[in-house]
Amino acid sequence: MSQSFGRERGAKWAAGKAPMNTQANALEGQGLPPADRLSQAIQEYKTSPHTPELIDRTFQTVWSVWGESIGHSFDVPACDRSSEELESLRTEGRGVLLVPDEVYTREGLILLGRVFPKMNSWSVGEDTTVVNEHTGGGCIDVEMTVDAPYRTDRGYTEQQLRDAIAADGREGQRVATYIVGSQISKLLTGRLFDKGSTSSRLPGSSDGGRTMGAYFAPNGYLHVSSNLDPQYQSPRLGGRSEGRHKANKTWVFDARSTGTS
Questions:
Q1: Which of 121, 120, 138, 143 is nearest to 130 (CA)?
Q2: What is the model's pTM?
């Protein structure tokens, strides 16, 4: 990368839709080995029209398999987008993630570190000090491009990036969202976000009051740091955002607690 990263450091969503516990999941193929169940779910996701029901089934399977790998059960929220909204997101290069609330806690980051040990990052270790600037999981849409979005020929400063994201009616992406989105991208395309080409500011998370930056190395190692100068610009440095359904925008700013949800 052109600048060293230094020390690497819910709820009911739509009326009548409640989070679904992965242990209660009754998907077809549940008798298959975890890897086969996951492969089956991803194949259906890639080849079928995107509907709320498909999104629910896919992420129930994903979190079930991820949870089983560490002996943990995740409560998976429901999709709150219509088929038309899902298709619109896809044409824009975005997709939805169903992310349990607990993933946005300190303990949740540690769980992600256990599910994906190749990341080997301080940000998902026992001593993580990542702080979220907004809280809660749910049905969250993100940019699914491998290379960082929000890039220009010169690059954005941190404030310019924040302004651009706010102008789009969105919030800065958090470290946990970045990890989940990256792992979904790997399942779909074989590539993690920013893998060996770009890096992303994540304005939704900070450490010591400084915005996080992140990228994945080719070997799956997650580089996370708060050492980026706010004025630093590079055409290879972009940023990522998160969005909620307009009816469910309940972001809560909380820069006081580590990984609070």
A1: 121
A2: 0.86
